[in-house]
Predict the structure of Methyltransferase.
Amino acid sequence: MTEAKHKQHLFGLVFGHMATQVVATAVRLGVADAIGDDGRHGADLAAGIGTDPETTNQLCRALAALGVLSETKAGWFRLTETGALLRTDRPDSLAPFARVFADPAIQATWRELDSVVRTGQGSFGALFGKSFFEHVAADPQLSTHFPAALRQSAAQTAEALPAHYDFAPYGTVADLGGGDGTVLAAILAATPRLRGILIDAPPALAAAPATLAAAGVADRCAVIPGDITAEVPPGADLYLIRNVLHHAPDERAVAVLSAIRAAVSRGGRLLIVDPALPDTVDGSLPDTMYLSDLHMRMIGGGRGRTQAAFEDLCARGGFTVTGFRLLPAPMAFSLIEAVPDPGE
């Protein structure tokens, strides 16, 4: 790489926060929905969404430079395949994801990164006097967008997991913190004789009956409200915990694992779906995983963990890790399989 390219790379990193705001503004204004399938002239787009024509054209050209739009002729814009993911009328829309990460509270939290690095303490609670999840619950827009973003993540797992793990040997799988049941429904649909138990806090389970019914598996799945840090019901020979531990500091993560250990039978297994970071930044994971690692620390004290750290964490919770397997992109999460420690 030449010196000029190194400089351009650094410029791109420094300007990154501007790119975030360009995309976030486009989502808030509904640009992708307004452009639609046929493309639209910038002036016509501005009239449709109630914005200033000249500045709207600048916004669209910035989006085109970022690969979200293409400018097919002067002032005429179309969605790229990337930009089409911001339409709200498609089931795999990433518009809620963009809204969450560009939320003013999240942006304010990231401005405190230097303090977090100095102290090791998350900044969200100190800034706002409540946890991130309490903030989400109190914000009408975020309380809509955040669950939608989680559902999109769950949909990616639901598509990948049944093809990359053999659930056939098990009789009952319990999905801990499984939300609306998207992942468990996919597992049960792919494994006809398997039964399921879905456990989460009551608000998270509100849509679960409809999700399970739509997949045709409601008759094979019990839905149980509960706090997985306090008690996990017995009765499953495989316990699944997805996208939970990296949100939690070690103490809470060990509490969750210990609750599972108290429920699981000696011959049972635990399957964790979470980021497992390599010992060095070797290019095997996208850079977003390392940004997410910092993000977890800042909003609540969670963090990404290496394989060795997962082995230690599981040992503290009463499990022995037996294997790691990386799920395919774009997830970049790992399947971490563990068995109860016979010494516990």
User: Anything to note?
Assistant: The first helix runs from residue 3 to 14. The mean pLDDT is 92. DSSP finds 17 helices and twelve strands in the chain. The first strand starts at residue 40 and ends at 41.
